[in-house]
Amino acid sequence: MLEATALRSGYGRVPVLDGIDLKVEEGAFVGILGHNGMGKTTLLRTFTGHLPATAGTVRLSGEDVTRYPPHRRARLGMGLVPQGREIFPNLSVADNLRMGILGAGGNEAAVLPGLLETFPRLTRLLDRRGGALSGGEQQLLALARCLAGRPKLMLLDEPTEGIQPSIIDEIIETLQAIRAREPITLILVEQNLDFIGALADRVLIINKGRFVGELEPDQLSDMELVGEFVGFAT
After folding, report:
1. 93 membership: H or E segment, kind and range
2. In whole angstroms, what is the distance from residue 102 CA to residue 108 CA?
C-alpha cells in the first residue's frame, strides 16, 4: 500500500527526516510513537505531499508519488486527519462533510447516510457550526470528513490530543468497526499508549528523524521497555 525508501525532508535548511524506510501492507494498522520534535508530523506531511521530500521515494499502491502534489495523492486514495483537526469552524457540520464528499468527487446522497451511520453522534449536530463543537466532536467530524473521500490509506496525527476519554473510546470502536467491514490501511501517530495499543498491529519508534525500533502492541504495557525506546512511559 505505502512504501517509503531512504526518505528525507525538512524545513528550509533544517533537516528533520533522516533516511526513513517503511513498508505498510494493505489493510495494516501501523502506529508511530515518539517524543515531540522527533519527526512524526513531518513524516505524515511528507507522505501527503504538503512537505516536499528532499531525497528518497514515496510509493502508493506501487506508484511513485514522490513529486505529486497533495490533491493528486488524495485522488489516489490517501487521506489525512491532521493534528489540531483543521475543520472549517464557520461552516456547519453538514457543510464540513459536504466539503469532504465534493472534494473527492463523491455524491452527497450516496455518501452522507453511510457517514452518519458510522458517526451517529454527528446526526444531531448537522446544523451546528464546526467551531461550536467540543474537541472530541470536532475530532469525530475530522475523521468523518476524511472518510467522506473514501481513502484507501488514512493518516492520523495525534487524534486523542485534548479529547475526553469517552470519545477516545468511541474513536477506537469506530475505527475497529470500519476495519472489520471494508479494506482500509491506517498509519497512526500518537502518544497515548492505550489508544495506539488498541489499534496498531505494530508500533514503530521514531527518534531524530529515523526509525530506531519496533514494539508489539502488548509490549506497550511494559513501562520499562517503552521508556528504554522512547524515554517516556505515560
Report:
1. helix 93-103
2. 7
**Closest Cα partner for 30 from 182, 231, 210, 190?**
190
Tell me how far apart the terminal alpha carbons of the chain are, to the nearest angstrom.
31
Q: Which residue has the cell 449536530?
A: 125
Contact (Cβ atoms closer than 8 angstroms) between residue 16 and residue 36 = no
Phi-psi region of 12 (alpha: psi -120 to 50; beta: other; left: phi over 0): left
Q: What is the pLDDT of residues 54-109, one digit of tens each?
A: 999 999 999 999 999 998 999 899 999 988 888 999 999 999 998 888 876 777 77
Instruction: Describe the crossing of helices 108-118 and 135-147 by its angle, rounded to 10 degrees.
Output: 140
Largest pairwise CA distance in the chain: 51
pTM to 2 decimals?
0.88
